[in-house]
Amino acid sequence: MTTGSLLAALPRLPKAELHLHVEGTLEPELAFALAERNGVALPYPDVAALRAAYDFADLQSFLDLYYACMPVLRTTEDFHDLTAAYLERSHRDGVVHAELFVDLQVHLANGIGADDVLDGMTRALAGARAARGTTGGIILSIVRDSPVATAHAALDAVAHRIHDLVGIGLDSAEVGYPPSLFVEVFDRAAALGLHRVAHAGEEGPPAYVVEAVELLGVERVDHGIRAVEDDALVALLVERGIPLTVCPLSNLRLRAVPDLAAHPIRALVDAGVAVTVNSDDPAYFGGYAGANYAVLVELGFTAPEFARLAATSVRASFTDDARKAELLAQIDAWSV
Ligand code: HPA
Ligand SMILES: [Zn+2]
Questions:
Q1: What is the mean pLDDT of residues 45-65?
Q2: Which ranges carry the Adenosine deaminase domain (predicted)?
Q3: What's the number of domains the chain is made of?
Q4: What CATH code is carried by the domain that includes residue 100?
């Protein structure tokens, strides 16, 4: 098998995307189209200038730009178009199931109604299911550097339609905002029947991963790459079967790792951690799911290993057992 044939086969490998911020799929062209449609100004003169700003030093420098683009999202139609474009694009990379984070607190602060956001996203998910059989769900992602009261307000705003969500997450600036601040919010979400996940160990220390697991009761850890610094934590993740949603291109572009060779994904996989591969904010980080799988070819990942990564993504998803079995059979049938 050649590298070329492996690269050519990766988009045909059915996979679940479990770490994806819907606002991070806002391509510059769509950002300007929505800005015009809504009469909103962007702090950049044109698409080229916006794209040129995608040179990040760390998580915060990315978040500044990411939040600066969000005010173009105003209507149900906007959230529909954004979500539908992502589901269509990622399907070409073999994404057959997608669980999408949404930073609802930011949209509420921008004066948008929770129902406008969720109506648009659920309609796009239903459309992708009807058109291509794609399944998926929405995860309310708590913005950890906003006041905790606004996290509760976001839960209040969706409580009447909690069945439209699959889970609760935790994102945004990590250092200084440990998971322990969100125990009550996550307890409330669990009582409402939501699955729990959290970003931890992207820039923050391994202790934040421990807090996410032990205090928030998360079923997956988003990023989690700094867990590799703590052998006891790696052993805990293996023993409890808690998956990580790893995003290689994101880690490179936000300089969480100095280069690909230094990325801990190989060490985590070899240690027996349940690792999945995801795109995080594909419009900003230079690639959708396919590109994030493809870059691992450079780290020596083989076809059987790619099939295992995809199978792990399906098992780690929050879809039902029948859908998991269907997708696992499709992965089994994949050949290079
Ligand atoms: O990678 C991320 N980390 C934290 N918050 C985020 N919000 C969007 N993307 C990210
Ligand atoms: Zn993320």
A1: 97
A2: 14-334
A3: 1
A4: 3.20.20.140
Give tens-digit pLDDT for 15-31: 999 999 999 999 999 99
Say if residue 111's pLDDT is above 80: yes
Extract the tokens encoding 154: 């976001």
Q: ipTM value of the model?
A: 0.96
The ligand whose atoms approach the alpha carbon of 17 most closely is: 2
Task: Kindly give the pairing relationship between strand 275-277 and strand 244-246.
Answer: parallel
CA distance 78 to 96: 23
Confidence of residue 260 (pLDDT cuts 50, 70, 90): very high
Q: What is the pLDDT of residue 1?
A: 76
Q: How far apart are CA 77 and CA 79, in angstroms?
A: 6
Nearest-angstrom CA–CA distance, 180 and 230: 19
Task: Copy the structure tokens of residue 112.
Answer: 């948008």
Q: How many other β-carbons are positioned within 10 Å of the β-carbon of residue 85? A: 17
Instruction: Please give the single-letter amino acid code of residue 323.
Output: R
Quick one: tokens of 249?
A: 């291109």
Q: Whose CA is nearest to atom 7 of ligand 1?
A: 172
Q: How far is the CA of 172 from the centre of ligand 1 (A)?
A: 5
The pLDDT tens digits for 194-216 are 999 999 999 999 999 999 999 99
Ligand 1 centroid–CA 128 distance in Å is 25
Exposure string (b/e) for 253-270, b if CB count within 10 Å is 16 or more?
A: bbebeeeeeebbbbebbe
In this structure, are residues 90 and 17 in contact, taking their beta carbons and an 8 Å threshold?
yes
The residue segments making up the domain with residue 47 are 3-332
